[in-house]
Design a protein that fits this description.
The complex is a heterodimer of chains A (423) and B (136). By secondary structure, chain A is α/β, with parallel strands linked by helices. Chain A has helices at 5-11, 17-32, 53-62, 64-73, 107-122, 151-161, 170-179, 208-222, 238-251, 269-273, 286-296, 317-327, 342-351, 353-360, 370-373, 388-398, 407-416, and strands spanning 38-40, 44-46, 88-90, 125-126, 147-148, 181-183, 197-205, 227-233, 281-284, 307-310, 335-340, 363-366, 382-385, 401-404. A five-stranded parallel beta sheet of chain A has the order 12-11-10-13-14, with helices on both faces. In chain A, strands 4-3-2-5 form a four-stranded parallel beta sheet. In chain A, helix 1 (5-11) packs across helix 2 (17-32), helix 3 packs across helix 4 and helix 4 (64-73) crosses helix 7 (170-179). Chain A is globular. In chain B, strand 11 (120-124) and strand 12 (129-133) form a beta hairpin. Classes of the chains: A alpha/beta (423), B alpha/beta (136).
């Protein structure tokens, strides 16, 4: 790798041992990618506070500095964690003290995370504690080089915002936060951001459910590559694209897509491909839509639903309001959790939405989700969700059955305890 | 003996039995680091342990937790012996780095097609060579 003078100085210890270790990791990582150089970044979204068995052990034995060295810098050296060199935020993590008594989650993890927040907060880590930092104040601008992890946030940042990031991990974001550097590879380069596959939508895609299924189809089709979506769909909203991207990053590894006329790097379909020569299109029609619905519902046999999960990726304030409207005046048989960013929970509390949801028997929880924390209401065997991502992951993580449908299907299941959703 | 040529991702030498996945692998929600086992229900290797094996696979998929989960296999002592993969992405590159096992990609032939489960494999990542002794 070719390092600039300031990068060489960091590697050689001019800014202390932690920064030197961070630069060493970035060089090893850059060489693994066969990447020539690093680029500057001033926006890092990573994870430091999330509890794990390995972290708990390191903290108990050696303290937080050691945990950061091992997990966030992949270093065996001893040093103190410096302040964050560039703006850095914490993504979603474990359940917090506001979930105690609701989510079965180890008390020692709640305490560990609370300790971590104090430690990292003093270092300048913004505890946004959500998988959707773009909903609560971290909104990079078009063309900005950023270093984010969380696949659903990465695909949103690249595609909807036009910022540039690869799908980073805990160690690369840890190193970026104290150096302001990240390998200039992949999505950081214009030529790697152009479309590779053309998907022609032949069946109307207008709802949140439909955007999730279309995303699941796109990810399954293109895997790591970059779909361009044209055809029969209405104007998507933030939540639709949030769901689309999260789904595409679950069935595949999509980090970038284009919707000509909607997303910023694709004013036209030709611009999306960077060429007038377009690939042959793949149709998404009635049969493909049905196939996605059945695939997402292939991990459920038992219609007795005991848990409903909404808010993956974390709900927008509009989704919280829609859930409140759907639950207003109803009484729930099953447990229902709505996952939200803490900052939006404050707005929901203030607007009275939380009260409506809680009156029905639902819960508005922040910071985490059942998949991140491996935690669902005790005894859950069958869950229902409006999120393609949770339907994809949660059965494996918790060993439970899954149903996927609309917000209304999910609320009905919560009220009756029965899944009756249909396409 | 079959030879594959590729490029180093993480330097080092390892030798052992191959475990080949024809499907991409998820980290978060895809493996249990405590046991070194694939847990994605619909995966062809569901329930199979990769600890101490030369893991051959097309690449990484899913969440950005990939590298963190494979780092945890190193800390838990359940890591694979080496990683050989077809497609490089940031997830699998960083994952290989923090798992600290010899790793290679960029092969002259697709390792997922050439290598079979149970083959004896020697990886010299620094030299860019993989030697394969097919299982009887």
């Amino acid at each position: 790798m070719k390092l600039t003078d300031d990068e060489k100085a960091m590697r050689d210890g001019a800014e202390g041992p932690a920064v030197a270790a961070a630069m060493d990791l970035l060089v090893r990582y850059g060489e693994a990618l066969d990447c020539e150089r690093l680029c500057d970044t001033r926006n890092v979204a990573g994870t430091m506070t999330q509890p794990s068995p390995a972290k708990a052990k390191l903290v108990a034995e050696y303290g937080w500095d050691k945990a950061y060295a091992v997990i966030n810098l992949d270093s065996d050296e001893e040093f103190e964690v410096p302040g964050m060199k560039v703006p850095t935020c914490q993504l979603q993590h474990g359940f917090s003290d506001d979930s105690v008594g609701i989510a079965p989650y180890p008390k020692q993890y709640v305490e560990l995370q609370s300790d971590a927040e104090s430690f990292y907060g003093r270092k300048g880590v913004n505890i946004l504690a959500t998988c959707t930092p773009y909903q609560v104040g971290n909104l990079p601008v078009r063309g900005e080089h950023i270093a984010w992890m969380e696949s659903s946030a990465v695909v949103y940042a690249n595609s909807v915002l036009g910022a540039r990031t690869n799908c980073e991990g805990g160690a690369s974001t840890g190193a970026a936060s104290v150096t302001g550097k990240i390998p200039c590879w992949g999505n950081h380069h214009e030529e790697n951001r152009r479309g590779t596959h053309l998907i022609d939508v032949r069946v109307p895609v207008k709802s949140f459910l439909d955007w999730g299924m279309l995303g699941y189809f796109a990810g399954d089709l293109v895997q790591e590559e970059r779909p361009v979506i044209v055809g029969d769909f209405g104007q998507p909203e933030l939540v639709d694209l949030k769901h689309f991207g999260a789904a595409a990053a679950s069935s595949g590894g999509v980090e970038m897509y284009h919707i000509p006329g909607v997303t910023p790097e694709a004013p036209t379909v030709e611009a999306a491909f960077g060429s007038a020569k377009l690939p042959e299109s793949v149709h998404y029609g009635q049969a493909e839509r049905r196939r996605m619905y059945e695939l997402l519902n292939s991990q459920g046999d038992n219609t007795a639903v005991d848990f409903v999960l909404l808010g993956c990726p974390h709900a927008s304030i509009d989704q919280i309001w829609r859930a409140a409207r759907a639950l207003d005046g109803r009484k729930l048989k099953a447990q229902l959790w709505l996952m939200v960013p803490r900052a939006l929970k404050v707005v929901a509390d203030r607007s009275g939405y939380t009260e409506i949801i809680e009156k029905a028997g639902g819960r508005v929880l922040s910071d985490s989700c059942p998949a991140m924390s491996r935690s669902a209401p005790p005894g859950t065997k069958v869950f229902a969700t409006d999120s393609a991502k949770q339907a994809h992951y949660l059965p494996a993580i918790l060993g439970i059955e899954a149903w996927f449908g609309t917000l209304e299907d999910c609320v009905n299941a919560a009220v009756t305890g029965r899944w009756t959703g249909e396409l | 003996m079959i030879l594959l040529h590729g490029r180093k991702v993480v330097p080092g030498i390892a030798e052992g039995e191959a475990l080949v996945s024809h499907e991409t692998i998820s980290g978060w929600g895809g493996i249990d680091p405590a046991k070194g086992v694939i847990i994605e229900r619909r995966h062809e290797l569901f329930g199979v342990c990769f600890t101490g094996k030369i893991l051959v696979f097309p690449g990484a998929k899913g969440s950005s937790g990939w590298s963190g989960f494979f780092q945890s296999t190193r800390l838990a002592g359940t890591a694979p012996l080496a990683m050989l993969f077809t497609n490089i992405t940031t997830k699998v590159a960083l994952g290989a780095v923090v798992t600290r096992v010899p790793s290679m990609t960029g092969f002259d032939r697709d390792p997922v097609e050439v290598i079979s489960c149970g083959d004896w494999v020697r990886v010299d990542a620094g030299a860019g060579i993989v030697e394969i002794k097919p299982a009887e």
